[in-house]
Design brief:
Elements (H helix, E strand, L loop, with lengths): L2 E5 L5 H8 L2 E5 L5 H4 L8 E4 L7 H6 L5 E4 L9 H6 L3 E4 L5 H17 L1 H9 L17 E5 L3 H12 L3 E5 L5 H6 L3 E2 L2 H7 L2 E4 L13 H4 L7 E4 L8 H9 L5 E4 L18 E3 L8 H19 L21
Parallel strand pairs: 1-2, 1-3, 3-4, 4-5, 6-7, 6-9, 7-8, 9-10, 10-11, 11-12
Helix pairs in contact: 1-12, 5-7
């Protein structure tokens, strides 16, 4: 029996070629849920990144679906609960972009500290205005890390090399893990009060949606900056833009947005907010690793083997279809 895989977001060719050795592949990019529903019934696997919305209607229309694979970390674009009820395994690739996301976070923090985008734009406009871009050193500053998982931990390791003081909030991380990273665990409110730079690395859930809103922003020091390379909806974008405009927060660097893709945002109006178009995982290395990790798990599911990074436990275990 030849298995069929539908890929609706762009993934590295290495992952596609690996899948081709075991299944028939259709690559149809940019499909909306209503465009997937009429065709998903022909496929045993659906491979996505962050753009495709895998709704309950999509899943229920996928009568043959065995696995939904996310070539990346967050699965908030997939209705995992409905997948579970329908016996569909959901897998992701949580380690593929870890280093890339951590490095992008550090890059944004340095850009904030030294006003790099603003200085670049000013000089290219024909103005030499050196005195306008006096920055600050990271050495000795306090970095508050919200979420000390894979990416947050790598950010901590790199920030330690910059001689920063490290604090974190993560109710699911052991004190031993934090101690090994030389990070002090504190409450969220204490982190916001103490930090000179705040970076978010937590999943988007019902509990973390708009985790940083007007009340939390009021706790932050006026000279502090916020970095978000995790999920856009972790922050109330309007409240952040207002806080920066009113100089209650010094600046922000935002790589992710509540709605993506986007070319308009309240965050774009403020010069002290640096924005990038969801580049955290956009390195050659990360794309290849995530695609290959995802492909391997799809093949394992087809063979009746456990997926390495399954995020759910379907109620109806599937039988192997590949020998």
């Amino acid at each position: 029996m030849i298995m069929k895989v539908l890929i609706t977001d762009s993934i590295a060719e290495e992952g596609i070629e690996l899948l081709r050795k075991h299944a028939e592949i259709d690559v149809k990019l940019g499909l909306k849920p209503e465009e997937i529903i009429p065709i998903i019934g022909d496929y045993e696997a659906l491979v996505v990144r962050s753009q495709t919305k895998v709704t309950n209607e999509v899943i229920e229309a996928g009568k043959k679906l065995q696995v939904i694979a996310r070539a990346g970390v967050g699965v908030d674009n997939i209705d995992v609960e409905v997948a579970t009820l329908n016996g569909v395994i959901v897998v992701n690739a949580p380690t593929g972009n870890t280093i890339s996301a951590a490095e992008h976070t550090i890059a944004l923090m340095l850009a904030l500290a030294r006003h790099i985008p603003q200085a670049n734009a000013t000089l290219k406009s024909g103005v030499w205005k050196r005195s306008a871009f006096i920055g600050t050193e990271l050495r000795g500053k306090t970095l508050g890390i919200i979420g000390l998982g894979n990416v947050g931990s790598e950010v901590a390791r790199r920030a330690r090399g910059l001689e920063m003081k490290l604090i974190a909030h993560d109710p699911f991380i052991s004190s031993d893990h934090a101690r090994n990273l030389q990070v002090e665990l504190v409450s969220l409110d204490e982190l916001l009060r103490q930090s000179d730079f705040i970076t978010l690395h937590t999943p988007l859930t019902a509990q973390t949606k708009r985790l940083i809103g007007a009340k939390k922003l009021a706790l932050i020091k006026p000279q502090a900056c916020i970095i978000n390379t995790a999920r856009g909806e972790l922050i109330d974008e309007e409240a952040l833009a207002k806080a920066v405009k009113e100089k209650r927060v010094a600046g922000a660097a935002i790589d992710v947005f509540a709605t993506e893709p986007t070319t308009e945002s309240v965050l774009f109006a403020e010069d002290n907010i640096i924005v990038t178009p969801h580049l955290g995982a956009s390195t050659t290395e990360a794309q290849v690793t995530a695609a290959v990790d995802t492909a391997k798990q799809v093949i394992d599911v087809f063979r009746g083997k456990p997926a390495r990074y399954a995020v759910n436990a379907p109620l109806s275990p599937l039988k192997p279809c590949l020998s």
